[in-house]
Amino acid sequence: MGRMASFCAVGFYDNRGGCSNCFNDVSAPSLVSPYSRLSVYPISRFSTKSQAKKVKSIITSRVKRINEKYEGFLQWKFPRFYVIYSTFFKGFRPLFTDFKEVLVIKQKMALQRLKYHQLPYREMEKLRQFRRDIIKVTPLVLLSIPPFANYLVFALMYFYPRQLLMRYFWSKQQTEDFMVTYHSMRAQRYPQVVNNLLETAPRVQSRKLQDRLLGLSSGVQRGVHPEISELCAVSTLFSGPPLGLWRIETTQMKALSQMMFLSPHLPSIFLRRRLWKHITEIHHLDRALSALGPHKLSEEELRNACYVRGLNSVHLSETDCKDWLTKWLQLSQRIKESEVSLLLHGMILLSVNYSRQRRAAEH
């Protein structure tokens, strides 16, 4: 018949292999499935992502291998330096974790309008310790700002880790050694504080309180560990003259400042305020710790709590630390905020002979 035409659903198919209506009418529906056109792009996108992940994985693995080789070289050639190097870089992880926790605590305080002493014990202690760490490392950060000063800073950190680095960058052995060193520094002031108490006793007007203070101070000098009741019996002397924090003599105030690792080379008014701030903070911590219960502390938390309150807890057993901290909390709960000077002096009176007493009890 000549050229044949066939029907389609929309129009006629001609010899070109397509429908005439489909070529001429742009509004005619396409016979190509819409899914066939869309399927091209997701495949391309996913393949690009998979390639990026693959490249990232290769780079990460290579950097890791290079770092392992570098650390192996340091460990082989410079073993002492490697210990400091690994400790330093491992310290960034707990530092970053604590930083995030501090931010969360600060946000909580802002949202709930809480003050420091209204926080739970662990959050209070976290803020206290982190603030001290930041204050300690600030001079080192400022020193590293000038160009090429970081080389000098690294050398200083290497030779003076106790003075310049935060506890995050100490090894376990360094932590124990430095705690012993710091305690020996503050313990040098203990005899002076006790001597000043003996010299102050004759100025007490009440004969009864005078005898109690003399008995307490002389007993500590002889190596006797006092009972909590003996300290509470003279608590009124530490709220006003002559042993209240705002009435004690300058020599005693300077000795107490050095015991708390505070500079004694400041005017008296600043020394008294700083002492008041630090011991009041400990008093607030004691209240929060009493609410929590010392038995809920980990061994590390327990030792740190004792150490902050004047006791060298490095070589004591966990049981001894718990016993001492329990007695300390008994004293702290029984004194008023106006009598916190007794808590300050109690750091010496309750700790100076405790280790000796425990060793004698064991034998």
TrEMBL record:
Segments passing through the bilayer: 134-160
Domain Letm1 RBD: 184-363
Membrane topology: Single-pass membrane protein
Major site of localization recorded for this protein: mitochondrion
Pfam annotation, one family: LETM1_RBD
Record localization: Mitochondrion inner membrane
Keywords: Membrane, Mitochondrion, Mitochondrion inner membrane, Transmembrane, Transmembrane helix
GO molecular function terms listed in the Swiss-Prot or TrEMBL record: ribosome binding
GO biological process terms on file: intracellular monoatomic cation homeostasis
Gene Ontology terms: cellular component: mitochondrial inner membrane
UniProt protein name: Letm1 RBD domain-containing protein
